[in-house]
Amino acid sequence: LNIPSVYQTLSDYFPVGAAIWQGNITGPHSVLLTKHFNSITAENDMKWDALEPTEGNFNFATADALVNFAMANNMLVRGHTLVWHNQNPSWLFKDANGNDMQPTPENKALLLQRLENHIRAVVGHFRGKVYAWDVVNEVIDPSQPDGFRRSKWYEITGPDYIERAFRVAHEADPNAKLYINDYNTTDPVKRAFLYNLVRDLKQRGVPIDGVGHQMHSNIAWPSTADVIATINLFAGLGLDNQITELDVSVYTDSTTSYASPPQDVLIKQGYQYRDLFRAFRYLKDEISSVTLWGLADDHTWLSTPTRLNWPLLFNEQLKAKPAYWGVVDPS
Ligand code: XIL
């Protein structure tokens, strides 16, 4: 059976990527990956805990293996992620005495220096290979009055870490495209906070190229109308948009659990992928890449031992699902 390549089918529109780990760059997974995708993101291997497990000691081995695979196969690489509140090493938020950092001027200076050191080393290392970076990830929390997530970053530095991260990343690789990445960007309240932040950054001359929309979705959400409104909103600021972590959960609530995916649910998922990619193609001048958060259903962050999920284009046997057909056959 010779099915069409996803990225070749969409070559008039945008590159199509997958989030990967080491197990995807050998054997049958690597064959599937290179056939259907022309971009990759490291699912975990470029996060702070992976790259700088102890201060000043960088471990690029696994990330380099993924990047070298991509280069050898003419694939783009998105970098994910420089600054986040998760998957950080424990030393990062310890003060000079090894205690948990409290918000003091000394600790603010120390933490911003660590941020600068990390970004210079990482972006410098991948310079010319990683074309786009998720510079900051998930900094918006719409439940806060000012919209800023109360992370350790915010607690110690206020919003200053965001601007600093973009400025340093741009210095380290002036050619890299720089994104602010977040989930639920179609939510009107969250979207408004994100909009005000990026407008403010742009006004102050901060080097930001665009917004990364994670787009962790499900079979009934979001609507294409909300996707189109969201992308057009940010495009109106002169910003690029990338879909960075697309997947479509088979669940619309947090309690349902299937032992195996019902066929009617897989069909619904196929229609949701079709509808989302219709919107993305319609928005092709505003969206410069679309990345799936995984290659096949045998490896997805949405599956737990007690609650499986099947959110991607290919099943556990690496066979095309209705979701795949929704992407390549928009009729
Ligand atoms: C997830 C990975 O997929 C998991 O393997 C890991 O255990 C936790 O992180 N938003 C993001 C991604 O920006 O980095 C997250 O990736 C998924 C949610």
UniProtKB/TrEMBL annotation:
<feature type="active site" description="Nucleophile">
    <location>
        <position position="245"/>
    </location>
</feature>
<comment type="similarity">
    <text>Belongs to the glycosyl hydrolase 10 (cellulase F) family.</text>
</comment>
<feature type="domain" description="GH10">
    <location>
        <begin position="1"/>
        <end position="330"/>
    </location>
</feature>
<protein>
    <recommendedName>
        <fullName>Beta-xylanase</fullName>
    </recommendedName>
</protein>
